[in-house]
Amino acid sequence: MFIGEFHHNLDEKGRIAIPSKYREILGDAFVITRGIEHCIYVYPNDTFNHIVTKLESLPFTKKDARAFTRFFMSGATAVELDKQGRVNIPSPLINYANLSKKCVIVGTGDRLEIWDEDAFNEFMSSCNDEMSDIAEGLFEEKI
Amino acid sequence: MFIGEFHHNLDEKGRIAIPSKYREILGDAFVITRGIEHCIYVYPNDTFNHIVTKLESLPFTKKDARAFTRFFMSGATAVELDKQGRVNIPSPLINYANLSKKCVIVGTGDRLEIWDEDAFNEFMSSCNDEMSDIAEGLFEEKI
DNA sequence: TAGACTGTGGGGAAAAGTGGGGGATAAATA
DNA sequence: TATTTATCCCCCACTTTTCCCCACAGTCTA
Q: How far apart, in whole angstroms, are the C-alpha atoms of residue B142 and residue B140?
């Protein structure tokens, strides 16, 4: 399971170090793709394949299904760690997520997310106040 | 069950001693994460896993679910006690909870909470007056 | 009063993250 | 076809952080 928050730098060559704690789970090869809030998702191969299977079961006659599949699949890239534990982020994804030098890598259960630091802080502070309400709404019964 | 209030120091390396009374319940390994009122939650592994199970049942296509999962999981870290009974607090959590040297560790039933001392005092005094009203709203019948 | 336990501080080794050089491969141009 | 240009990896070296251990002081107990 992916948990935690790490602040790493994207270097001039478009590389970023994957926190060592995550490498054991991810293995050497995995998938990165566009995420929903203008961040980048990082999935282990198994998990990615599982999601793809789900997507393929959606009827391609549905407009939304086509759009989401396109969004999700077109951004995807199979990547490998170099010997320093870094990955290359393809430039379309760097642009999509607006990554500058300072990035945040967070674990959210089944995947990692890579955010530009400013964007992440903004997102977090924007939903900080609502978090209490959200929590109340999510669980009807006692946890 | 966690009860009580302890005042401990966060040292320069970001470590804080867990009160010895709590160590028996927590064991050697447990989880700390972002709490809702800008404090830090400390959960035994079992309790944390239970919450995660609940979260995982929520679809990642739901916006609130993504936000809360991100909030909760990204703040989480699996920690272990060192031989002196201390844990390392990751710097993102120190920032989030605004911890300076003086901290308060309180037991709140199923979890511990770690607060900056000033923030804790302020929170307590601010809602002391309302406590009577708050209590009334909680239960309709007799406890 | 001696011993055990708890909380606090700090030193040092090991690991993790960062930046940059250089060679191989592939694409582009003359 | 030959030369140039760009891109991608791999490796090395430096810095920073993390982790583990030891030592000390205060408190409680026997």
A: 7
How many A×B Cβ pairs under 8 Å? Answer: 63
Sign of the CA dihedral running B33, B39, B42, B46? negative
- Choose among B39, B28, B51, B10: nearest CA to B112: B39
Subunit contact B73:A107, Cβ cutoff 8 A:
yes
Tokens 């282990």 belong to which residue?
A44
Residue of B nearest to A139 (CA): B54
b/e for B68-84, b at 16 or more Cβ within 10 A?
Answer: bbbbbbbbbbebebeee
Question: The whole model's pTM is what?
Answer: 0.90
How many Å apart are CA A100 and CA A14, to the nearest integer?
Answer: 10
Instruction: List the structure tokens of B120.
Output: 């804790």
A4-18, A81-95, A125-139, B76-90: which has the minimum mean pLDDT?
A125-139
Contact assignment for B90 to A37 by CB distance below 8 Å: no
pLDDT at B10 over 50: yes
